[in-house]
Amino acid sequence: VENQQEKIDYVFKVVVIGDSAVGKTQILSRFTKNEFCFDSKSTIGVEFQTRSVTIKTKVIKAQIWDTAGQERYRAVTSAYYRGALGAMLVYDITKRQSFDHVARWVEELRAHADNSIVIMLVGNKADLLDHRAVPTEDALEFAEDQGLFFAETSALSGDNVDKAFFKLLEEIYGVLC
Ligand code: GDP
């Protein structure tokens, strides 16, 4: 349920992380603006966008941070993770390497973010089925092993993007409230 009112009960900071070019910026723009931009960016410097949603009668403003390309230089700093209640850890289902690096991103979160951070593993570009390089079962197994939530999304078609964010926000709400 959308809510345009100014009355906000909670602000949840969520960070989007993962290798370069997996679709982090597009997932964010799909969720906050329902847009997909074919040739986007590149602005350097951390940016966030917001969308307010209603969860169990409370208005939650999701403040979602994008690395804005800094992951390329491994320059994502602890300030980026500070105060984050949730993380979207994105890989590209067509790029095996981006999935192989997921463990490293989990370590990064464990080192810099709060212990109670809720993590959603996201296999993006699910529209490119013919180019799939990461079986769903591999990701599911990793997610279960590490205690992460899991979804496959397409920022291009919009499939599952809202669902993944809502699940994350609901879980954060469950931890906090
Ligand atoms: P980031 O570096 O992780 O922020 O990745 P971007 O959001 O800039 O996306 C990288 C490239 O992948 C761009 O060319 C996007 O158009 C493309 N892309 C992002 N999401 C999808 C998706 O769901 N499906 C397809 N086919 N392409 C996508």
UniProtKB/TrEMBL annotation:
Regions that span the bilayer: none
Family from the record: Belongs to the small GTPase superfamily. Rab family.
Name of the featured protein: Ras-related protein RABA3
Taxonomic source organism: Hibiscus sabdariffa (roselle)
Lineage of the species this protein comes from: Eukaryota, Viridiplantae, Streptophyta, Embryophyta, Tracheophyta
Full-sequence range covered: 7 to 183 of 229
